[in-house]
Amino acid sequence: MTSTELSRFPGWLRPAGVRGFLLLLAFFALIVIAGPIESAAAGHAVLGLLVGAVVATGGVLAYRALVGWLEQRPVDELALGEARRGVLRGLGLGLLLFGVVIGLIAMFGGYRIAGWGSVSGTIATFGIMCGVAVTEEILFRGVVFRLVQKWAGTAIALTVSGLLFGALHLFNPGATLWGALAIAVEAGVLLGAAYTVSRSLWLPIGLHLGWNFAESGLFGATDSGSAFHGGLVVGVPHGPALVSGGGFGPEASILAILIGVLASVWLLRSARGR
Question: Which of 49, 130, 237, 274 has its CA 20 to 30 A from that of 119?
């Protein structure tokens, strides 16, 4: 940012660290506010879709407005023209990766279907997960990862954003330290790698949505310790928690960590090749 652009801000707002902290605070507050509203909409198809759409749209517009103003630049990482392509690619990848994870867990006896869920619950889960994916990716990849990568490099950005992303899940009802660490490794690094290879938030948003929706909306599994979302079937863990993920859900399975790490390596190698 040039000195002329900085002069548009009051003195206290000119340091880059202050502006970065304001972005962090703003989008953390959005997650805190949206969380209870999303929980209240669980199981209600129309309400879930409506809440998810409002939260996701509000998050995108707020990010574009705040980043554009505080950094005085075009917000290319959330360019609206790239939304459809990026989200669909990420959605497909997320569905595929979680499908592989749950298939492996089932193969080793760690997942069973206890009955049918509901279409209404599945629709509501999709809507809610749209809001979750957008707000969490904006905070952890759009703010934390992007700024840390700019200041300290990709390796440190992956570590910091991954650990903070895992720590957020310690606030979930059935959270465990192991589960939070698993999330940090398999999802935090994976989503940071998705941003690195695409230089766009749309790919990690779609990836996050596809993974979460498959987990809760299709396979009815507990999502990071939270079991309030509905799915097409009711999935239950079985056998050793190291395989099934136990009460935290499949994301605490060693198999999920393995798939997440392999996918992260593939994305990071692709980014280096480019």
Answer: 237
pTM (2 d.p.): 0.94
Under 8 Å between Cβ of 172 and 225: yes
How many Å apart are CA 202 and CA 20, to the nearest integer?
Answer: 21
Contact 202, 87 (CB under 8 A): yes
- Could you tell me where the DSSP H helices lie in the chain? 3-6, 16-40, 45-71, 83-107, 119-137, 146-152, 154-168, 177-183, 189-198, 202-212, 241-244, 254-273
Extract the tokens encoding 182: 């698993």
Name the residue among 37, 194, 191, 200 with its Cα closest to residue 127: 37
Percent of the chain with pLDDT over 90: 79
> How far is it, in rounded angstroms, from Cα 158 to Cα 267?
13
- Per residue in 182-217, pLDDT (tens digit) is 999 999 999 999 999 999 999 999 999 999 999 999
Q: In 3D, which of 224, 225, 252, 250 has the Cα closest to residue 235?
A: 250
